[in-house]
Amino acid sequence: MEKEVLSKPYLLSSDDLTIEDVNLIFDRVKYFEYHYSLGATFNDLNGYTVALAFFEPSTRTRISFEIAAKRLGGNTILFSSATSSLTKGESLLDTLHTIEAMDVQIFVVRHSGCGVPLFLQRNTNKIVINAGDGKHEHPTQALLDSYTILKHFGYINGLKVCIVGDVLHSRVARSNIILLKKLGAQIAFSGPGTLIPRHFSIWNVNFFRTIDEAIDWADVIMLLRLQNERMDSGLVPSLSEFSRLYGLTVERISRKPELVVLHPGPVNYGIELQYEAPSFPNVLIQTQVTHGVFVRMALLSLLVKTYESRAK
Amino acid sequence: MDIYLKNIRVVNPLQNLDGIFNILISNGIISYFGTVPSDSIPPETKIIEGENLICVPGLFDIHVHFRDPGQTHKEDIYSGIKAAANGGFTGVLVMPNTSPPIDNTQIVEYIKSKSEGQIVDVFISAAITKGLEGKQITSMNTLAKGGVVMFTDDGYSIVNSEVMRRAFDYSAPFDYLISQHCEDHNLTQGFSANDGEVATKLGLKGYPKVAEEIILSRDVLLAEYCNNRRYHAQHISTKNSVEIIRRAKEKGLRVSCEVTPHHFSLDETYLETFDTNYKMNPPLRSKDDVEGLISGLKDGTIDCIASDHAPHSAFEKEVEFEKAANGVIGLETSLGVTLTYLYHKGHLTLNQIIEKMSINPRKILGLDPIVFKTGKSANMTIFSLDEEWIVDKQFFKSKSKNTPFDGFKLKGKPKYIINKGMLFTSNL
Q1: Could you give the angle at the alpha carbon of A170 between the alpha carbons of A169 and A172, nearest 5°?
Q2: Structure confidence by residue, pLDDT tens digits, B258-285
Q3: Among the four given CATH numbers 3.40.50.980, 3.10.450.50, 3.10.20.90, 3.20.20.140, the one describing domain B59-365
Q4: Residues of B belonging to the active site
Q5: Contact (CB, 8 A) for A137 and A81
Q6: Looking at CA atoms only, how far is residue B208 from chain A in angstroms?
Q7: Least CA distance to B276: which residue of chain A?
């Protein structure tokens, strides 16, 4: 039997994953996809309680983790900041220790602050999974994006992936850059000068001035959500100029039908993506969501194994 | 109280002094310097064997926050004084961002009366503008008559050029020292790290170097325009800032500046683990800047080493990184870090270090120089140049423990201070 544990008993950053870890996770994803389709049930998380600690609003990531944990036989508790004692001024560490005292073994953390999952992991001996921290990272999104690309092409090494839009404020971009580069993809950015990190050369990536140039180069276009507050704060002069330069339209996709399009959601239709575009077969937004559940099942099951092997 | 310093190396660049001497101090006055007749040593004299120790003019930290009045859970004047003494300092300059701020003589009187008679001399800087709001200048003459020796809005950099011009012009007839924490706040909203490689990877909002350099350049231009005013730039952190000061000095302008031990010894990579003990304003910069700061220390562009001692409680630091308070304490590590990173690495001579930690800060503030000779009052710091030690924050006298140097191995350690006839022995 192959090695069945990950190199670390937590996932805070794509940097925590080795290539062997990613392969192990993807094998496990395939296993779950196949057996689930046959109607199998799983008990990998029997006796485990997963705290979905969402200090920031989320729909798909929270539900995805919840379904993944339940399909593996685990219990889940939902913690959301709006209804918690955090609004009464309870400190984050007190909140962590309070939940911990109720015999919770896994923390899935979403927070608006960079580094919060790492901060919590340093203060607990339980499993911590980063479900998105500020502008820092969102490693499970990167895993499901990579898996989606792998499943479509059959390989990742050598593929050209261009991340388009608000890279500066995007945790999805940061986690994807690390993971996709690790798996051999070439990366590029395209977006307004005010939304591209000034020091992006540290990643050794290409840059394209417009989405048209990006499409010519890329095998995969990864769109990012343009948040309304970028407009309000004046980082982007107008939506019309943004979508003219960086919006993916039916016309643009038609020019290169083999182009694969990903988006972490939620989509702003009419800004980064034309409303009719998702009907194209290579726009894989729904597929990403479906894969998300299996990727998180694989991750949860392997982290629990890793955790148990260390506890022995 | 009598103190006898026996066979101790005494160094004072002001007097071109460097040699082994015996010193007898009686009631705070140097009664013998050089040789001490044995029959003149009273019984019960405290004897300090000088072997492996160096005696220098009392160290002075030109940038500390004692949080008193207003935030005495972080520090107060007494604990701040103990931290200073423990770190080898006989004098400090406190910053005006207390609560309420030091913008009127009542607060000045409060600090003076609380620190009176203490072993560490506490000098006071006051706000340039009322309430540190950057709008109306304070009653500078009244404050100066009350004992204030410098004006600064410290953390609240004055971005409005007209207000800064008024501060220079108003102070001109009295030639007060105007000082600035250089930061264009428009460029630093929401920052928590240097705008560089590390912030880019971590997704943190960056504090660009130009935010410091823009205000520093403007201030130098204004100081010149307002007929060469006395201007002191606080804790400069970038290579370009050093260059701006260098050019200003070449022009003959009366500008000076300081650097903190953390900025010349650490760089932004320390933030990679989101440890809030490396979060401060200005932020840790790149390796290139550290080199630039060291070159500025070497060629004299940088006049002073100052800790920017900024105490914060655990509950203000053990939180989400971006929410954590800015600032680190430094009084108890300043000398050790300076000796380790500047002297033992061969960047500065001992004389240069004494100049930057004692002579220059006093000179910039217009205070009396310290000279060692019979009849003068004894104000001195005694330290070991070569003793190695591990920083353990549990020994700190400061109320707060937010140091970036906990666990660091340092070479060179404060031992005693002597001032106003009192002796303090460091426990570090």
Answers
A1: 170
A2: 999 999 999 999 999 999 999 999 999 9
A3: 3.20.20.140
A4: 308
A5: no
A6: 10
A7: A119
